[in-house]
Design brief:
Distance between the termini: 30 Å
Number of helices: 17
Number of strands: 11
Mean pLDDT: 90
Strand order of the largest sheet: 6-5-4-3-2-1-9
Structural class: alpha/beta
Bound molecules: iron/sulfur cluster
Strand content: 5-15%
Largest sheet: 7 strands, parallel
């Protein structure tokens, strides 16, 4: 079993060249010869898809705004780092007195609930699928911009999620506002299925240049498997669009990542996605499938899983662009016990309500705080503590969350909590992130 997932030494490529391209923001335009990934029957015809991607890129590329560079861009990043640094010192002060109402590293905004897919594993962190929830009540563009303004008072980074965020026609206006407010990085998580149409539109011409990290879900490469998993008749659109985005990413200055949810019984799919991403020089993010607020136990029992974990860690050690630090990946992939600090990554729902202290909590329902009723994150956090002090919230008791969630985000906050006591570790993690592996 191990042989099937660990790359034999004679097939290993020198890692420097493709990763150097990725880390420097230079995606090679043409499709390389695959060396790790082996296309199988049922996988797409990559040459045909890439020819389609090239044709699209040739048509839309010249109309897109180029990457933002120079003093304005440095100033934006510096402003975000200042916020993060100020929060770090304040969070150290709070942690030293036993407080757990830590100021946010970033916030996750469910910009809307509807989605054009119906992925098997995706829910709203409360066991309900987004497309099956009432899609009404999302913030309009004016209130969306106001939300970004309020959260920016203490938050350096924003993560646009959904549902499918690209279903919002005003998404480019919101990402532009986020950029003007000096958020960094600006991350968008998408199923990627619509870009061939969206990028033709003038309103989307600045979108890629405004976003720092584009995360595209990719859980397998077999088209039938993807059609079943995502419940879409056109999974090929995503794969063609991924090749399109790869061609456009360098010019727009956006980092492209694929996010792979590893499913029990389908670890080989994740191996193929990893190999494919490494061959193409695309960043790879991996997360084990969760059932409710904990990892799917069947995955941990899957005999193929340990070798996959070993392979991911080996690639990470070799410098592959795999999101997060080595420690974080080790802990995430083994579902290690962790220190959940949810106020570091608050979820704001489609209607502008922030879940306090945690959206996923099973034993205790979250408090919903209307962000737009406040002018400053400090006031929101104060209100949160008034309603429920997050001290000791993570745990199995009836007044605790009842979960052990196994998402990358939780292990990121765990890294940060660890870094409050070990600043040098945090600095190393930060450097990895800023190098682009982030
Ligand atoms: S472990 Fe608990 S506090 Fe943390 S995200 Fe899961 S349910 Fe929420």
């Amino acid at each position: 079993m191990i042989e099937s997932v660990v790359t034999p030494a004679h097939r290993r490529l020198p890692t420097r060249a493709p990763y150097a391209d990725y880390l420097a923001g230079r995606s090679p335009a043409t499709l390389p010869e695959f060396s790790r990934y082996r296309p199988r029957p049922g996988h797409p015809d990559w040459r045909r898809l890439d020819a389609e991607a090239a044709e699209l890129a040739g048509r839309v590329g010249p109309k897109l705004e180029p990457a933002r560079r120079g003093p304005v861009e440095w100033r934006r990043r510096a402003a975000s780092y200042r916020t993060a640094l100020a929060s770090y010192f304040e969070n150290r002060r709070r942690a030293a007195t036993g407080r757990q109402d830590l100021l946010p590293l970033y916030f996750i905004w469910t910009t809307l609930r509807p989605c054009n897919f119906l992925c098997d594993y995706c829910d709203d962190h409360r066991g309900r699928r987004y497309p099956e929830l009432d899609g009404h009540g999302k913030l309009d563009v004016v209130r969306g911009q106001k939300l970004l303004e309020v959260m920016r008072t203490r938050t350096p980074s924003v993560y646009f999620a959904g549902g499918e965020p690209t279903l919002r026609k005003d998404l480019p206006t919101l990402t532009r506002r986020a950029r003007d407010l000096d958020y960094y990085p600006i991350v968008v998580n998408t199923n990627g299925s619509l870009f061939h149409r969206l990028l033709e539109k003038a309103e989307w011409s600045g979108f890629l240049a405004d976003v720092d990290v584009l995360v595209v879900s990719l859980d397998a490469l077999d088209l039938e498997r993807l059609a079943t998993l995502w419940r879409t008749p056109h999974p090929e659109d995503v794969l063609r669009n991924l090749l399109l985005l790869r061609r456009l990413a360098a010019r727009a200055g956006v980092k492209l990542l694929v996010n792979c949810v590893v499913q029990p019984g389908h670890v080989a799919d994740a191996v193929e996605v990893l190999n494919f991403a490494l061959d193409l020089g695309i960043g790879f993010t991996v997360v084990p499938k969760n059932v409710g607020p904990r990892v799917d136990a069947a995955l941990l029992r899957d005999p193929a899983y340990p070798a996959f974990v070993a392979r991911v860690l080996e690639e990470k050690r070799n410098g592959a662009p795999i999101t997060g630090s080595l420690r974080m990946n080790q802990r995430l992939l083994s579902a290690a016990p962790f220190d959940c600090r949810n106020t570091l990554k608050p979820h704001v729902d489609h209607d502008g309500k922030l879940a306090w202290p945690c959206k996923a909590s099973e034993n205790v329902a979250p408090e919903w705080i209307d962000v737009l009723a406040f002018e400053h994150v400090d006031a929101i956090w104060k209100e949160g503590v008034r309603r429920r002090d997050p001290r000791g919230f993570h745990g199995p008791g009836p007044e605790q969350c009842g979960g052990d969630c196994c998402w990358a985000q939780n292990y990121t906050t765990d890294e940060y909590a660890h870094g409050i006591e070990h600043p040098s570790h945090l600095l190393r993690t930060l450097v990895e992130f800023l190098r682009g592996a982030g």
